[in-house]
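We examine the record.

___
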Amino acid sequence: MSEASRRKNDDPAWLEDRVAALEESLARVNTFNSTVMEALTHILERLREFEKMTVWAAARDYKMENNRSMQALAQASKIFPKTRSVVFVSKGYFGDNVKYAYLAFYDYARAHGVAVNFLTDDPHQSDMLKAAGLPCLSAVPEDWSAEDIRALLGAKVVVMADNFGAHSFKNPKAFGMLQGAKTIQLWHGIPIKEIGLRYVLRGDNVILDELLASAGEFDVLVAPGAAARGEWAQRFAFRDYAATGYPRTDVFFREPTARDLLNIDREIYDLFRAARSKGKPTIIYTPTYRDDVASAWFSSAGIDKLAAHAEAKGYVLAVNLHPYEQSLIEQFHKQFPGIRFIAPGTDIYPIVREADILITDYSSLAFDFLLLDRSLIFYRPDGDKVVEARGFIETMVNEAPGGTALNADELVDAVDTAAAFIHTPATDSHRSARQILRAKLFDHVDGDAAQRLCEVIIRQVEAD
C-alpha cells in the first residue's frame, strides 16, 4: 500500500468527508427517485382522468345520438298515420295497473276492431307474454320487424303506469316512436309521498328535464276517486281525468284467471291459499324503500323475530321488498333463512288477495287493501327519518286506519291482535276508520275498474 493510501485510511477527516459525500449522493438519488415517482403518479392520475373523460364523452355522444334519433322518430310519429291501435307500456315487470288494463282491453278490443300490443324492455317478460299467446313487441329493438315499427309509429293511444320520458326505456327510440299517440297515465297508486310536479318543487337532486317530462301533459289521468282531481292536478298535467278505479284491484273481487296468475310467485300464492283454507292467518309485509340504507334498515327491523313468532303460532308470513330493493333478496335469503321473500319482479296482487293482514309503512298498497276491509298494521321503526328524507304528504301519512308499531316487540303484539280479528271482524276497532277512508278515496268498490277504463281507452281511440 502506498504512503498516500495509508494517510487517507488513517485520516479521520478524510473518511468523514468521503462518508458525507456518499450520503449527499444517496440523498440526491432519493430526491431524484421521489421526483420520478411524483411525476409517474401525476401521469397516472391524468391518464385516469382522461379515461373518465373518454367514458363520459362516449356516454355523452351515445346519449346525444339517441336523442337525435329519438327526436327524428318523434317527428315521424307525429305525422305518421294513426291506426285503431293501443300500446301498453311497462318499463319492467308484467304487473300492477298496466298488466290488468292490458289483459282486460285485449279481450275488449277485439269486439271494437282495435289492435293491441304490449311493450317492455325486459326480454323475459316479452317471451312470457308471447308464450301465453298475447301480443307483445320484442324487448330487443334490433328484432323489430317493419310491421313492429309501423305498430309503434301508428299507435293511436299509449297506456302507461309509470314515468314516461325519453330515458324511461333502455332504448329511447321506442319513446320517440310513441310521441304522436294520445297518452293515458294510470300511475301506480294513490301517492303518500310527493311525486311529479310537487317533487320538482322539493328541488333535491332531481333531473328536471326527465322529471318534467314524466309529469305530463297526459290526455287522461286515471285515479280511484273524482274528489281527488285537484290533488292530482298539483302533481301531474293532464287534459282529462277518469275516476275509474285501479284495474289491478279487480282481482280482489274475482277468482283469479290463468292470465291473472301470469308472472306471480306461484309458490307463495299456493302457500297462502292453502293456509287460508285451513284457517291459518296469512300476512304480507310490504315496506317501501329507504334509498341507500335498505340493507342496514331491514337488518335492524326485527322481521326475523316476527318470522319466528309467525312460525310458532302457525301464521304464514311473506315479505315483498320494493322493486328498487329486490336485488337484496339473495343476500337476505342467506342472512335471514327463516323469512320468506316473494320472488322479485313479480305481480303481488293475487297474493294480496289471499292476505288476511297487511303490514306496511308508507306503501300505497295500504289504500288498495282497504277494498278488502282486512286488518292493516303500520310498522314505522324509523318513521320520522323516512318522512323527513322522502318528502311524504303529511295528511296521507296520518291516514293510518290500523294498528301501529315502532319496534319488533310491538309488531309481534299488533300481529297477534290483528289475527284475532280474522274470525270476528266486527270486533276490529279500526274497521270503521278503514271504511270511512275507503269511501273517501274510492268511488267504486266493485271489481269493474278495468271495464270502465276500457271505455275511456276506446273513447280516445275513436276521438280525432
Notes: The longest helix spans residues 12-79.
